[in-house]
């Protein structure tokens, strides 16, 4: 039987044999794919055979006149379009944004008005890898949201890190050339752990702050639902009275900010390269939508565009939340999976220039270059200038644009005069006034000499990297040291390694010394910024118990396992929006009395990365070495572990210290046991179990 989502899809409506109804279904607004019941050519001509080419006799040559064969092969030849030059690997979901209304004082953007609900499409991505690369590589994640607002589309094309590698867009081709696989052998795929990347970032030290984010846990998120998002640049918001403020956009995940550990990320890249996209799609299908709150840091629109000494036009700088509170202004809920990856996720086209009245950009030189790049790249990626007509890109607001013709024109326009003004079409369409919702750029003074230069304030490349390092918890610092050491140990060129250590010496002496020790190199002296005040908000380690919706619990069960207990645990877990999988030595069904459980994962086909917690059911006797590996990995990765009844013996046989933090034991599946397990799951990790870096 096909999976549920396929069964539920509407079958094409059947039509009368005369084909009349099919003609109607293909005209005007009702145009849709897969109309009608018969297989046809792209011209709508019905086919009686799609398996045999037209030949001069069964053994003869194929005839050029076989229009069906030629159309079928030609279309196939062009099924792949160029992948995105960056952010090629992505996954997306539909949803809704609901505004709380408290942003009305700073922006007139209609979608932020109280109670307004706006349909959205959000695409998450990695940056460096090709379209077929693994989800869990160490990289930045794209977080692009298209709001189909009543005033036209607004795209917030952000990342999961609040800063960027470079300060000026003119360097973007360079940093990407350096990060992409090396040109001679095209390796490594989707990795920054190679010479050219580290060569670039150690020569362009403005990258230092961004690189430490990428080397931190932020570079390997647990899932899309546990990532923060950032607009990165400073935007200028305009309210109804024409007053302006400078603003940083944030997305705060309701599920908390959580990451994988590096070993998990590496295992997942082999065992389940689709780890993040699967997690998102499965979670949505299981009824656990992804939820994020939109936050604004509202800063005064000052003459020098700085705040507390931080240059707001420098995209390598963040504004600590302790200095400017993030005010939550609405909620994004992603609750519907795309049904056609290509038509939706692949063809969606985001652009920083998709702005609505009330939101303007600033002179940040990185943002300025982006304003050119997106439309330009999409012209070739989507094959011409009409991609805004694709359903996924099409605004929900009325479009009347006087743009005509071009490749893939699907609109059938009316009228004679696609120009303004005109007398032939009665001067239609009309121009709107600001009061009627026109986007009117705020008049702003622009002056200065024509130069290729940066403001002097852009010269500070290290102080916020120091801020980030000093704001991390011990375990996060250990991960950062490991990440630098891992990446740098992959380099062939010792001088590059040494130059990176020189950079780290200007961030923090201890960080530099620990990485240098791992590489077996001397730690150089540097001049790190003094008096840096840490920002606790930058650390993602928390003692709070977060929501567990979308999390996965694996229950290890043998033939004699307590199936009634598994049933009770499933109920408790599902009540919180999480999922339970039964894991056993072989597939099939387990039965005990009247209780029955289907085995969803076998030791051969599962790895620890699939679970946020693993529990051993009472009555399970197992001494399979693959189970030992599974349990030890879960323990080593500091995830919740548990057992009830004599299941504890299986943990002990695997060498697990059952008195360690995050290990939950119980006599049976009753309230205290399930409550403790869900608490351990909500804590994400028992970091106290972490082995300090360098001693593993
Ligand atoms: Fe992009 N970026 N970018 N970028 N970017 C693209 O557009 C570019 C930058 C971001 O899911 C491309 O349609 C330049 C910052 C995301 O479809 C391209 C510069 C941030 C996505 C492009 C930047 C981003 C893109 C490739 C420096 C975070 C994926 C395909 C001036 C704030 C969107 C495409 C999706 C995609 C150019 C810098 C985020 C080539 C020139 C900073 C999330 O146009």
From TrEMBL:
Keywords: Heme, Hydrogen peroxide, Iron, Metal-binding, Oxidoreductase, Peroxidase. GO terms for cellular component: cytosol. Residues 1-44 are annotated as: Disordered. Gene3D superfamilies: 1.20.1370.20, 3.40.50.880, Catalase core domain. The active site is at 87, 159. Decomposes hydrogen peroxide into water and oxygen; serves to protect cells from the toxic effects of hydrogen peroxide. SMART domains: Catalase (SM01060). Belongs to the catalase family. HPII subfamily. Residues 1-10 have a biased composition (Basic and acidic residues). This is Catalase. Its cofactor is heme. It catalyses: 2 H2O2 = O2 + 2 H2O. There is a cross-link at residues 351-374 (3'-histidyl-3-tyrosine (His-Tyr)). Residues 40-428 form the Catalase core domain. CDD domains: GATase1_catalase. PROSITE patterns: CATALASE_1, CATALASE_2, CATALASE_3. It is an enzyme of class 1 (oxidoreductase). InterPro entries: Catalase, Catalase_AS, Catalase_clade2, Catalase_clade2_helical, Catalase_core, Catalase_haem_BS, Catalase_immune_responsive, Catalase_large_C. Heme binds at residues 84, 123, 172, 370, 374, 381. GO terms for biological process: hydrogen peroxide catabolic process; response to oxidative stress. One of its GO terms (molecular function) is metal ion binding. Its EC number is 1.11.1.6.
């Amino acid at each position: 039987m096909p999976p549920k989502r396929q069964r539920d899809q509407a079958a094409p409506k059947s039509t009368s044999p005369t084909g009349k109804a099919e003609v109607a279904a293909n005209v005007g607004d009702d145009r849709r794919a897969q109309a009608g019941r018969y297989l046809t050519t792209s011209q709508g001509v019905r086919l009686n055979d799609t398996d045999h080419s037209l030949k001069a006799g069964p053994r003869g040559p194929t005839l050029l006149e076989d229009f069906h064969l030629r159309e079928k092969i030609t279309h196939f030849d062009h099924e792949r379009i160029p992948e995105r030059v960056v952010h090629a690997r992505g996954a997306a979901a539909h949803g809704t944004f609901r505004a709380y209304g408290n942003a009305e004082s700073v922006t007139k953007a209609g979608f932020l008005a109280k109670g307004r609900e706006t349909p959205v499409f959000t695409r998450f991505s990695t940056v460096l890898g090709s379209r077929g690369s693994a989800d869990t590589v160490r990289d930045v994640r794209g977080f692009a949201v298209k709001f189909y607002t009543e005033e036209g589309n607004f795209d917030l094309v952000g990342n999961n890190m609040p800063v960027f590698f470079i300060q000026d867009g003119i360097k973007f081709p360079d940093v990407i050339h350096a990060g992409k696989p090396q040109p001679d052998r095209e390796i490594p795929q989707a990795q920054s752990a190679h010479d050219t990347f580290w060569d670039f970032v150690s020569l362009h030290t403005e990258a230092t702050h961004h690189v430490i984010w990428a080397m931190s846990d932020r570079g390997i998120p647990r899932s899309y639902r546990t990532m923060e998002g950032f607009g990165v640049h400073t935007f200028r918001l305009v309210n109804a009275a024409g007053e302006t403020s400078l603003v940083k956009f944030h997305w705060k995940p309701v599920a908390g900010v959580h990451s994988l550990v590096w070993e998990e990320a590496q295992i997942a890249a082999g065992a389940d390269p689709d780890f993040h996209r699967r997690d998102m799609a499965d979670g949505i299908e299981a009824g656990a939508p992804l939820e994020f709150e939109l936050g604004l840091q509202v800063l005064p629109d000052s003459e020098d565009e700085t705040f507390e000494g931080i240059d707001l036009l420098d995209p390598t700088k963040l504004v600590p939340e302790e200095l400017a509170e993030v005010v939550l202004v609405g909620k994004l809920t992603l609750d519907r999976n795309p049904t056609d990856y290509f038509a939706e996720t692949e063809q969606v086209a985001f652009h920083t220039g998709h702005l609505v009245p009330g939101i303007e950009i600033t002179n940040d030189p990185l943002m300025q270059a982006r304003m050119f790049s997106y439309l330009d790249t999409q012209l070739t990626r989507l094959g011409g200038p009409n991609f805004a007509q694709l359903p996924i890109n099409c605004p929900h607001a009325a479009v009347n644009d006087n743009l005509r013709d071009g490749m893939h024109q699907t609109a059938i326009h009316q009228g004679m005069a696609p120009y303004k003004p005109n007398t032939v079409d009665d001067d239609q369409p009309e121009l709107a006034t600001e009061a009627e919702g026109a986007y009117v750029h705020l008049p702003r003074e622009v002056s200065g000499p024509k130069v290729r230069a940066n403001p002097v304030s852009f010269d500070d490349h290290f102080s916020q990297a120091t801020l980030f390092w000093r704001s991390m918890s011990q375990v996060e610092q250990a991960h950062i040291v490991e990440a630098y050491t891992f990446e740098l140990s992959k380099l062939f060129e010792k001088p590059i390694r040494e130059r990176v250590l020189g950079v780290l010496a200007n961030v923090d002496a201890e960080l530099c010394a620990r990485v240098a020790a791992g590489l077996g190199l001397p730690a150089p002296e540097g001049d790190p910024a003094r008096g840096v005040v840490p920002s606790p908000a930058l650390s993602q380690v928390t003692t709070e118990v977060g929501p567990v919706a979308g999390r996965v619990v694996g229950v290890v069960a043998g033939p004699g396992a307590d199936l009634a207990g598994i049933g009770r645990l499933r109920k408790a877990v599902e009540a919180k929006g999480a999922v339970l999988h039964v894991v056993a030595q072989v597939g099939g069904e387990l039965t005990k009395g009247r209780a029955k459980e289907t085995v969803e994962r076998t030791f051969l086909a599962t790895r620890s990365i699939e679970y946020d917690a693993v529990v051993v059911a009472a009555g399970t006797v197992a001494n399979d070495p693959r189970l030992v590996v599974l349990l030890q990995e879960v323990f080593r990765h500091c995830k919740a572990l548990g057992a009830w009844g004599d299941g504890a013996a299986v943990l002990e046989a695997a060498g697990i210290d059952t008195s360690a933090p995050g290990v939950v034991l119980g006599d049976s599946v009753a309230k205290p046991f399930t409550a403790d397990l869900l608490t351990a799951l909500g804590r994400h990790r028992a970091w106290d179990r972490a082995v300090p870096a360098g001693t593993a």
